[in-house]
Every structure is written in structure tokens, then in C-alpha cells.
Here is the input.
Amino acid sequence: MEQSFVTQKEFTLRPRARGFHLITDEIIRNLPRLPQAGILHLFIKHTSAGLSINENADPDVQTDMEAIFNHLVKEREPYYMHTCEGDDDMPAHAKSTLTGNSLSIPITDGRLNMGIWQGIYLCEFRNRGGGRKIVATVIGQYNI
Here is the structure.
């Protein structure tokens, strides 16, 4: 017999330095039991970090993504008005708008159904962002 459920869990990722970080394993460790079929929705509760799905094999991708974002959104631009929280703050807000604050990932056979080369990234845009809070919502059908 199948029954639909919604479950939600909030947890804090370990602090990381500025950059693009693979967090797939840390996310999975913090999730409740996954259903046979469903959706995992992840939401980051911050305005200076983001979530993304990207390549999980070559670490050069993480380095290149950081370089690309730093090229697109520079620090200390003369037109920034919001500067009281440091040179990295306003650029972090802009970068988080570019990446977004949530992801939806299908669940199939009790596992995240991502491509073989895909991983979940924390996009940390502050020099010292601290632990980032994630809300994970699982919607799906469980065999009971």
C-alpha cells in the first residue's frame, strides 16, 4: 500500500570558505528517509549564498565557477550603496540572485535521481559565511 507524505527537516551545513563546494553527501546524510518516488526541495535561508547543481567530477569546475562569478560581479564597485557589511557583502547578494536559493530534485526508487556527473553545490559568496541553514522538504509516496 502506498501513502503520500510530506516531511520537512531544517539543518545547518558546516561552515565553508568562499567558493563553490560539493555538498551532496552532507545533504544526503541530513535527509529523512526518502520515499520510493517524489521530490526533494532544498531551500537555503540566506541572501549571500546559493544552491546549484553542477559537475561533481573535476574540481576545476568549482575553481572556474568562482572565477566566473568574481569576474561577473566585482567587489568595491563605486555604484554600490550597500557597503556597511564589507566588500564581499553586496556582491554576495547579487551572486545569490544569479544562482538562486532553492533546488528541486526528483526521487526515484528511494534515491536522488540526478545525472552521473551531477552534484549539489553550496555557492558560498561571503569570505566567512558561517554555517548555512537548509530546509529540506520531501514530498512523496512511501510503501507502508
Remarks:
- The mean pLDDT is 96.
- The longest strand covers residues 2-12.
- The CA atoms of residues 53 and 120 lie 5 Å apart.
